[in-house]
Amino acid sequence: MNEQEAAPREGGDGRREVLGDEALGRLIAGHERYLRSGSRPAALRPETLAELVQGQRPYAAILGCSDSRVPPELIFDAGPGELFVIRVAGNVIPAEVAASLQYAGAHLRTPLFVVLGHEGCGAVKAALDCRLEGARQLSRIQLLVESILPALDGVDAGLSPDEQLSLAVEANVRWTVRAIRESPEGKARIREGVYRLHGAVYDLSSGRVRFLAED
Description:
This protein is of the alpha/beta class. Helices cover 44% and strands 14% of the residues. It is globular, with a radius of gyration of 18 Å.
């Protein structure tokens, strides 16, 4: 596991508690390692396994797309116990996903939440096709597509298809970030002052994560 910086304070279980700013720095540092040399999973030592058996204290929760090309643990060069990862096509936020995020914040005291979209997202592309051309998907896929549609209202139909998709991917990430931020749980966590919430987009071509400026 990657070394943590000096502890700002200690959690109730005696383990150091990472705060939001430090967690973001850790996530970015892991991503820079990935860009320089790729992720290098290390063998888990017996003492590490023994520590993980006692419980988990992930420093970041990542809501990402199910796309097989976008594995958060590799992108951020993180080991077991470091990231609380939720993956669903289109990084949407139905009740079950919202419950998982609430668990990370309330029970695991995870200080950093990141909504991670990616360029070329198939779910977002399907939502664009539905919005612009009336395309339909299989029943359950269509339900997922329809949950993305409200995020795409500002996408200009006059742009090129590539520009439309890129803007739609970012708009969808921002939509989910706003949904988390404006929920009662999100407001409560942010008021505490130690939690951070960010949107980000992964570029499949370069392998780089771009963190979005806050609204």
